[in-house]
């Protein structure tokens, strides 16, 4: 345990940030899962809508430094590819 006052404060700040970041990362996983579930159900409108919501959440997390911007871009790209694949299948009638 720290004896220095500033380090005690810093430890408290770090713990609060860790809890907040953990909650945001959990929400990102949930948003990604919603996209995959919508895509699996075969509903293109829902999949695209969920992908937009997830992309916005990833952008916010990246701007706040919770996830790296390239990590956010990679996840957004994969989700968009999944949602667009479902939309393409629906439009071709397959």
Produce the secondary structure layout.
Blueprint: H1 5-41, H2 44-63, H3 69-92
Could you give a quick summary of the protein structure above?
By secondary structure, the protein is mainly alpha-helical. The protein has helices at residues 5-41, 44-63, 69-92.
Salient structural properties:
86% helix; mainly alpha; 94 residues
Explained architecture:
- Helix content is 86%, strand content 0%.
- The model has no long low-confidence stretch (mean pLDDT 95).
- It has helices spanning 5-41, 44-63, 69-92.
- It has 94 residues and is mostly helical.
Q: What is the CA-CA span between the terminal residues?
A: 62 Å
Structural category is mainly alpha
CATH hierarchy: architecture: Up-down Bundle
Number of DSSP helical runs: 3
**Low-confidence runs of at least 5 consecutive residues:** none
Overall, the morphology is elongated
**Main sheet, how many strands, which sense, barrel?**
none
Query: From the alpha-carbon coordinates, what is the Rg to the nearest angstrom?
Result: 18 Å
What is the CATH first-level class name? Mainly Alpha
Mean pLDDT: 95
Count of the domains:
1
Following the backbone from N to C, one meets helices and strands in this order, namely HHH
Strand percentage lies at: under 5%
Assembly level: single chain
Count every beta strand, where a strand is a DSSP E run of 2 or more residues. Answer: 0
**Helicity range of the residues?**
over 70%
The CATH homologous superfamily name equals Ribosomal protein S20
CATH topology: Methane Monooxygenase Hydroxylase, Chain G, domain 1
């Amino acid at each position: 345990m720290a004896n220095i006052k500033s380090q005690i404060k810093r430890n408290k700040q770090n713990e609060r940030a860790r809890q907040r970041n953990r909650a945001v990362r959990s929400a990102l996983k949930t948003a990604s899962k919603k996209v995959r579930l919508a895509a699996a159900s075969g509903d293109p409108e829902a999949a695209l809508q969920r992908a937009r919501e997830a992309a916005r959440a990833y952008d916010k997390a990246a701007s706040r430094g919770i996830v790296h911007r390239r990590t956010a871009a990679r996840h957004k790209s994969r989700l968009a590819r999944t949602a667009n694949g479902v939309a393409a299948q629906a439009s071709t009638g397959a």
